[in-house]
Please model this.
Amino acid sequence: MSLTEDLIDGYAKVYGGLIIGQSVNNAGLSGSSPHGIIGPRTEGFTIDGAKFFNYNWNEAAALGTCSHCFHSASTDSGARTVTTRNLAFENVDRKIKYQYPERGIFHDEDGTLTGKGADTYATKGHLHVQQDECDLDEVLFDGVVCNPGTQVRRVAFYGYEPSHFRGQEMNILKYDRAFTKTATEEVLQAYKDESSNYAKLFWKDKLKPSAGWAAPFVTGHRYRLTWKNDLDFTQMKV
Model:
């Protein structure tokens, strides 16, 4: 599914469906890594009642994200949310394999995707979303799955001034007050100076918004955002 932008949330969906990855009739797939369903590069898509069988070779996965975003003519800034419910999996080694730009979000209404219960979320395992209430599983989920009561939301940054932000990487640091208010000045400065503590998200030329960054964030937390060489902005839209 590529686009859903002209429909109200809940109208564009896969309803039911038997989705088989590998069988004796298609052994020629042994050298590939397909997806069962690839979600759109827009909001408002639902997968309801799909059953996935035999996605258990190479990096084949039941679910993918951001259809055709790899192509320059049809890309997107990413971090779009797909809603799921009533899913079933058998012989599936990878439930999710995120595609470029690897920022997708899944909202699991009943727990049949995440296994963590109703109203749970999954997203790519960037460092800043590896919070205590989210578990990292880079094989089955290609990212994190978060406990009930935890939400993952898309936030986009764009419309910056001056223009030297164009093309620069955005760096995201976990910055909860429980740490920043208790750490000594020296410890806090060392934490900010260590580049391995940051999630690094590349700038995207397009689309929606154009020339900016879109990322999933686990809500209820505090983050520190910087850009290459600690560039300072006079304007930034969020």
Summary: The chain is about 5% helix and 35% strand. Residues 185-193 form the longest helix (9 residues).
